[in-house]
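Whether sequence alone determines local backbone shape is best considered at the level of individual chains. The sequence in question and its structure tokens are set out directly beneath this paragraph.

===
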Amino acid sequence: MKEIVKELETVNAHWVKAHFLEMMQESVDRGKQFVVEHNQQPTVVILSVVEYERLLKWLNFRQFYELSRQAGLEMVQKRLNEAQLQAEIQAIKQEVYLERYGQN
């Protein structure tokens, strides 16, 4: 994580107070990202909503990829065929539904 922070422009919190609108404009127009330091410690990252949404999509994809990989490994380990896997997925879906919405 520290390596990523080093790549971004680092600014002091006092500087941000005086230049916040300018920073917002640079984030929106050029996709610039800033690390704000307070007491010489990285504290906050400023980035545009477009960059934030892109980051969330990437994180969601990584999570989906990892879960899919784990499911595939588990399928191989349990020696499940596709029909058995589908049945297991259905049972998990039902369990999650009951946990979330309760029994009808």
User: Anything to note?
Assistant: Residues 2-47 form a domain with the YefM-like fold fold (CATH 3.40.1620). The two ends are 46 Å apart (CA to CA). The longest strand covers residues 41-46. The chain is about 70% helix and 15% strand.
